[in-house]
Structures are given as structure tokens and as C-alpha cells.
Fold these 3 entries.
Entry 1:
Amino acid sequence: MTSTPISSRLIQSLLDIRPLAAIAKHQARQMIIKRAEALGIPWRQDVERLRSHVPQWEADLAEVRDPNITYPAYYCQSFHAYDEGNLGWTPAIEVEVAAQAVHARLWPEEGSNGDVRLRQQYHQVLQTHLPQAPHLSVDLGCSAGASTVALQQAFPDSHAIGIDLSPYFLVVARHQFGQNPNVSWRHGASEATGLDDASVDLVSACLMFHELPQSAAIATLQEARRILRPGGHIALMCMNPASPAYAKMPPYVRTLLRSTEPFLDEYFTLDLQQAIMDAGFESPALSITSPRHRALIAKVP
């Protein structure tokens, strides 16, 4: 077993001290905001525009939230430098501008359009691999809805259901994309959607699996197999552990990344292709969608 470098152990020990961790998270967030605005992404303007709706949205939470849902323990912790994780307004209204800022680094020539290009690459792979367009698609971990709407637009004659555990994200999604009659939203977990057996044609999970512990990732694959019709497909687009970008990443940077992505190590050590087959799918096709991302697509026998 490879020993952990002293620099990484030191940083991890410092991050275990709550006040220091809070300072590190705050600084990391400020750096992302500055990077976004340097690229022309109007972070503060977009966030303030959405935040102005929060007083009205408080009433919408009761309509969106499923009162029978019990949040799994892994979900009730800090993610992405937010102490409330995904269960709050700030992460819900910042998620899309944050994605634009982070994915702007994928193709420097694209600037702020990196996030759009990443999704386009994924949907092009889907359109190439699926023998026919799905009638009903499910977008697991749909966040604030951009991935769901983009998925539906990739297959214009389809209906897409966006599922997420955060009612805050779903309220924002409904506000931004509620005018699309071919998209609907559902409060639920990726490993327990509540949908009927063999009822959908495509299950997509875009940039979600690195946020799951291995037990939840495996349960999600099993749930996808349950709700997919024979001949249906599962499609996952997420970080690529085999990417040279991660292999070259300094250990201390990986340690800082883990402080905002608590299940990153579990994701990087999960044989996702084998897990997909173990859940009852055919061997998945692998496609590279960016210098740091991959797509896996597998069919129900």
C-alpha cells in the first residue's frame, strides 16, 4: 500500500480543525467566484437574481417535498464547501454558475462555454449509442435542472423526469425550466425513485456518481435496472479516474478536493464498469467526453 505523503497528512489534519476548515472552504469559494467573473460569468448578478425569489419559494418547498422521504446519512453532510450540503438555498442558487466556473478549465479556448460543451459531448455520445430515441427518460441527481432540460432537448420527442433529493434544487429547477411541458420534477433518491418497474427507456446520471458512497452507487445501479424496460439503457457521465489530469494532480490538491467531495476516494476506487454489469446490464461502452470526464452506457439485456 502506498503511504500518504506528509504534505497531504498535514493538510488533512488541518482540515480536521473546524475553524481552519471553514476558512479554507471560504477561500476556495471566493477563488471560484473570482475565476468565474474573470471569465465573464456573472456570478453575483445571477445569484442575487435567484436569491430575490427565495421568500416566495419558501412556500413552494412544501409542494415539492415528499414528506415520506428520510434523507440518508451520507446526504446530510457538507458538500462543495457548503455546511448544509445540498439542503439549502445557497447551494441551490449557486450550482449552475459554479458548474460553469469549474468546467471552464476543461477546454481553455471555450472559456465560460466549457460546461455547455461538456453536456453536448455527453449527449452526442448518447445519440450515437442509443439505437432509437427514448420516449421516457429519467435524470438522476438532476440538481437545478440544467442536465434534465438538456437531456430532453437532445431527444425532442421525449419526456424527461428530473429526480433529486434536495427540494431546494427542485424549486429552483421548476422556476427556471417549468415552462417546458416535456419535463417534470420529482423529489426522491437515486437509489429509491418510487417509479414503476420496467417503466422508462433511459436512465441518465450526469456528474452525480462521484458524490455517492459505494453502497449508494451500487443501490442506484440496481434501482436503474429495476425501472428500465428490456432493451433500455443506463448512461453515466462523471469524472474519469483514469484521466492523466487526476494522475498528475499533486497529493495535497487531491486532499483539498476531498474536503469538498467526501466520497471521492470511494468513487475513484469503485470499478464502475464491473458494478454496472453486476447490476444486470450488458458490458458498458466507454467514451471520453472531456480531458477529465467519461461516459458509460449499458443496455438492459
Note: The CA atoms of residues 258 and 264 lie 6 Å apart.
Entry 2:
Amino acid sequence: MNESRWQTERENRDKEVLARLDGKLKLVEDLVIRVADGLEHGFYLHGEGGIGKSHLVFNTLDREGFPYRTFNSRMSAKGLFRTLQRHPDAVVVLEDMERLTNDKDAQGVLRSALSATQGKSRIVTWITADDPEEFEFRGGLIMTANRPLADLPELRAVESRIAVLRFEVTQEELQAQIRRIAAGGFSHGNRTLDASQCTAIAEHVISECREAGASLNIRLFEKGCKAFLQWEARRSHTHWQDMVGSDVRQALTELQHAQRPLSRRGRLDHHRQIAREIMDATTDRNEQLRMWEARTNGLKKSAFYERCREVRAQRQA
């Protein structure tokens, strides 16, 4: 097959894949709007890191002109109480605060702020011997995370009060999305890269991830663009392609040494996602097993076959 024909077929395939991905993106946007419109009190969005969850949430809120406040890193239960108290009518966005949802005091604040009883005010209280406090929360709460809510009774009560969505993006969808982003160029401060430069970077990142058995994500593409800018300005001793390779290997190492989810359900969900991405990336069985071993730090191939069966069953349901 000549290169021109291959390029045309890939572009046609990317269009099909992007149509499927856009349906997923629109669902996330719809759930964000539902919270901002007050039709839903909360939304918990979780999925692998670097696939654009937070970017999608903020873009939707900005485009629709909804007022919101965002917080990340670390927050205590009392900090959550104070945050909601100070912004009782806003959409509050919490990024990557899985530890907060495991705090029993914070769970109580969340249940009260997200109360689903029709026609009832959402009164949040914090009672101590010296300083009892309460307020009415009328806003919305959006949480983004890499992991699902832990399988605990208190969090199941929170989960039942809000919209919950696992945002799943296949490697094929990420490849097509990154190519689409690359077609628009890249800007960092007053420095820019054109579409042809970004496309070359995107294809190199995709190739490096495939070779290493690493999970592709948008952050790696953005790092690749910055590495190119540094190299182009002659501010690096290392070629930009070698810097991309280093970033990919580091991402793979972090994945291998990441703390596993606490619950059995969480571990299974995590391994199903890995199997799903590998199945989408290649149909070669030897390559699939190599990627599985690299991504799971040597987990048995029998586990890969079992997760594949479960993924196929989910897709057929």
C-alpha cells in the first residue's frame, strides 16, 4: 500500500473514531451543564490521568458562562465545609481529591451538601461543643479523579445522590484526538508551533508509547511540544525526540509503581482498563502480552485473558 493511500485510510478511520469519542465528550458536557443548571447537585467524573477530564469540565463551564470556583491538591473536612459555606451558590470543582472522599467527616459534609430530597433545603452543619455552625448550600459540586469512589457504605450513599461517570477513552481514540489537537498547532506564551510540527511530534509520541507499552495521554503530547520548543531554541543538549522517550519511560515507571486501588473492585476496574487499551492498540497476541506484562509489572497472562473476556462481555452488553 502506498503512503498516500495509507494516509487517506488512516484519516478516514480517525474520523470514525472521533465521532465515537465526541459522543463521550458530549455526555460529560451534558452532565456538567446539568449540575450548573441546578438539575443535579453533583457530578463525580473519574478515569485515567491525562485524558482531558478537567480540561473538558472547565471548557464547558467557561463556554456556558457559569460561575465556578476550583480547588485541588489537599483539603480537610473542615476546609470543605468552609469552602462550600463561602460559595453557597457557585459550582465548586474539586480536582484529584480522592483522599478527601475517604475522610469520614468529609463524607458527612458531602452527603448533606448533595442531599437529594426533593423540595428540601440542603443544610450543612458542623457541630462542636464550642462552635456549632450551619449554612444552606444551593450550588453544585463537581469532582474529577483518577479512581472510582471507594466501595464503602458512606460513599455509596454519596454516589446515590449525584451523577457518576467513568470517562473511558481508548488508545485509538486518544491517538485520533491528539492528531486533531496537533492539527490546530500549539502555543506556549509567545512561542508557537505550526500544524506540521505538532503532527510530527504527535506521531513520535504515539510511536514511543506503542514501542514502550505505555499508555498514551494528552500530557505526553504537550510535554513533547515543550521539548521541541526548548530544542528548537537551542536551550537543550538533548534532542527533543530523546526527551520524549524519557518522558514516556518515566510515565511507564510511575504507572508500574503507582499505589494500587484499595478495593478488589478498584483493582479489577484498573486492570480491565489496561486490557481494554491493549486490545484497542494491537491485535497481535505476543505484542498484547508484552504490553500487559509491562503495564502490570509482570501480572500473569491468564489474568490478561480473563480481563479481555470481561471487556468483550461489557462491549456486547
Note: The chain has 13 helices and nine strands.
Entry 3:
Amino acid sequence: MTRKGRMLAAIRREAVDRCPHATYNIHPYGDNKHMRDTSYAEILNQIRASGGVAVKAGPAGVGTAFSRPVEGAVESSTETDGDKYTVTTTIHSPKGDLTSVMLSYIGRPGMVVKHFIESDDDIEKYLSLPYEPPVLDLSGARSLYEAIGDRGIVLLCFDEPMYHIASLFHFEDFCVRTLVDLPAVNRMVAWAAERALENMKLLVAACGDLDCVFHASGPELCTPPMIPPSVFAALVTPYLRQMVDAAHQAGKPAAIHCHGRVRQVFEEIVKTGADMLEPIEPTPQGDIDLAELMELATGRIALMGHVQDQDFYTAPPGYMTKWVEHIAGIVNGRTGYIMSPTCTPFDLPCTDTYRRNYMEWLTAADRIL
């Protein structure tokens, strides 16, 4: 089997000749940040030799509120002060302006210091935004798909309605609102879901003959301990089910990306009809081990992940080999699982410890699985 064929078979829970393994958003196919950084050269060469890849890609052409970008509807400005820069984004809605402010430092993650929605009036402003069907551009995704070929899979991203709405608020405000006024939050998510589903239909049509995997990020924002499982059932399950169904009607598999604790929402994830859940973090970031999760998942949903990204930065020599052996013992010839890291490598340049551990994982996976 090819690396791609093996991964797709595992996602469909069909027989495989061996357990597949894949890197996560790091690959040597086409231009990308890891290819441009020589500190990743050894890892990329090993991926070429033996590693499968799972790479996210998304369509261009979607603007604010799932709509076609409208000239003048969104304005952005940047102010710099040394290595600090502030980006202010303004949305001009029919009922008034909405503003977001992000503070960043060069080489560090940014932080939103003012969110688009901070009041009930802001909610009404956002919901007044008109919908214009986007013209989706998949040229970038297609180029990546062709470059990867039979060496891995492309995860074609689509917008998840709850995540879209949650990202408009300060997260604490969103959590409180789901507890004190869930119907109001659900009204917003339903509004977003109607648009998201129309866009999903357009995306499925634009995808055509690409045997990619449709991919939803975001459900992790609606999981314990911050938000109870009942809210996940209300804000995620029914709407994501519609979008997964749209993918299935075109014969495409769908995956859900959900970091953290999934034990209490696992049955809801299964109810969405998704074909795969990733990145299934081990404890303590997650709250369920692979052996139990595979028993729950068998015949119902495939799994990908369980190699904790943080371990590449800190683990001693030999640890990654033992972890691969541990996972191989659990999988024990069964299908429905792809071994992969839980996160994209973000450090630029790559540290010596990270490189050593990543190389050890790649070579152990190729030898043991």
C-alpha cells in the first residue's frame, strides 16, 4: 500500500498492511516555513524517505461572516513600536461598526486585547452582516495535493460554526454566556451554521475529484473543563453533523480536530458522523488513554495522533522509541488508527533536542509499526 492509501484505509476502518504514521503540518513538498529553515533539513529528508504526511489546506475567497469579501466592508491598520505591533480590524456592519485589536511582538504569538463582540448590541451588529456566496479558490490546496501525491493526505479545512462565533468573544465571556443564556448563543451559532453549510456545499463541489479529507477545527473550545458536555451537544453536534453529511454525500471522509479532554464529549463526536478524531492527546493534556479510546472507537470512528508534541522538546534519548513500542502494543495489528504528533512544529529554528527526538520517532515508527 502507498502511504496515502494506507492512511485513507485506516480512516475508513478498512484493512491495512501495517499501522500508518504521519507527520502533522510538516512536509518537504512545495514551499513552506520548514522547507525554508535549514534546521529542519534532516527531518524533512527522513520524511521523504519513509514518513507519511497529513497537511492542512484551506480555500481562499471567504471573508467576514462566511461571506464573499466585500470591498470596504473590512478595514485593517497596523501600528508599530519597536518589536511591538498592534493590528486594528474594523467591520462595517449595517447596524454599526465592530472592532478587534490584536497586540503582537515580532517572533511571539499575538493576543487579542479587544474582541469584536463585547455587548448585546455588538451581537445584533454582527448578525446584520449580509451573506454573499463566496467564490472559492482551491488552487493552493490543489497544488499541495499534487505535490504530496501518494505520500500523504490533505486535510481540507472547513469552518465550524461554534468556533467561528466563540472566536468573536473573549473566551471567558463566551463560556459565561453559554451557561447563563444558551438560547442566545445558539441563535448565533445557528445563524453561522446556515451560512457554513452553504459554503460547505460549495467547497464539496469545488473539491471535485480530490480524495482529500474534510477537516473541522474548533470543537475543542466547547469541551470540559470550561464548558459542560451538554453545551457541546447543543452547539456543536447538530450543526457539525450537517456538514459531515454534506461531505459524505460526495463520498469524502471528514475529520474533527479536538485537543484536550474528549472523554465526556466522545459520544457526541461519534454522533456527528465524522470518520476520524485527532489529535487524541495522551494524559495529562488529554483525559483518556489510547487503549480505552480504541475500544470505544472500534467500528465507529478512526483515530489519529497520541504522540505529544511537547515530548519532542523535552524527552530524553530513547523515550520516543519506547512510546512507539507502547502504541504498537495497543494497536496490535488493528486498523482505524494513524500515529502522528499532536501539533505542528512551531519553533524556528528547530532545537537540537527537538530534532533528535523527532528523528528518533520517525525511524522508530518506520521500523516498529
Note: The chain has 14 helices and twelve strands.
